[in-house]
Amino acid sequence: MQNSNLQFDVIICGAGPAGATCALALGQSGLKVALIEKAVFPRDKICGDAVAAYVPLVLNTIHPKYAEALQKYTSKEMVNSFRIVAPNHKPLDFTFKKHGFISARLQFDNFLFELAAALPNVKIFQDTAVKNVTINEENVLVTAGNDLHLEAKLIIGCDGAHSVVNKQLTGNKVNLKHYAAGVRAYYKNVTGIPAETFELHYLNKILPGYLWIFPLPDNTANVGLGILSKHVADKKLNLRQEMLAIIKDNPYLQERFANAEMIGRIEGFGLPLGSRKVAVSGHRFMLCGDAASLIDPLTGEGIGQAMVSGRYAGWHAIKCFEQNNFSEAFMKGYRKTLYKKLWRTHFKNYIIQKLITNRPWLINASVNLAHMNKFFRNIMQKAFGD
User: Measuring CA to CA, which residue among 164, 180, 145, 138 is closest to residue 284?
Assistant: First the structure.
């Protein structure tokens, strides 16, 4: 043990939605928490920016004041309708009972971060990248930038798709069949966006991927393209070029973007999908969010899953200290809870993803049938999360 080590009970690596929510879940625990973040907030995160309708409930179960704060948060565009556009350009709209919202990660992540930073038991370390994690029988040792050395009883990896905690503590490997690539840009003045509606456009060349249009405040939109990494590699696709070509040449879209203006540039990111189970816990550690490969394999949703996992990890951490048990066996309780909540939906959506791969006719037929048959329409709506 080094005398210079800063002493904590829990170290959370990453202060995005998973890490911030985990800190909130530990806010009333009395535990001393270090929240380490490689960037400085507010910081951007390349994403679709869609936030699921159940997120207010996640915050409410931690403390009602956080759900109230989210209700007052204004940098969001409320949505409760979902448009699928089939490869034959035929649209199908679903309306959901509850509203989700679209919010640029620059603002939304900062909102959650500020809630966590206000907690008296949480010490924030920004501009501090984790370099090394060592776990022994008695504790966790972390070396980070700025010559920082931390020591704790437990570490929670919320540090994203390229998680240092995941790489150093598990045998999880990237599998392109369970990984997606995406690109995103912001646009002004995209026309024809229905009120309170987000869109997924399924196109022949990029199945089972899609192009999305998600509305944001001030007449802006998050526009992006996502596809399985294996298909990107197999077809040697340049997603930035593909996205621009689709917008320019697709008859359903070109008119809507005729007077649109791109804000900034197209940026790329990786998406570790929740279409397989991976190691998310072990002796003195847990993984959350993208570090735990929890992105929905069909819809690409990841913010809600990150927050759910962060909440469960925080709650399980409290149990660890109550029982003074940080063993691999005890940590399986977190894994069990997490997959009980998410796996059924992820596996179902993985099957749907596989079914529509290279089958544009199946999506066309499904949309046509849904227009004619209310029962089948309801089945499709449930598949997308009603």
Answer: 138
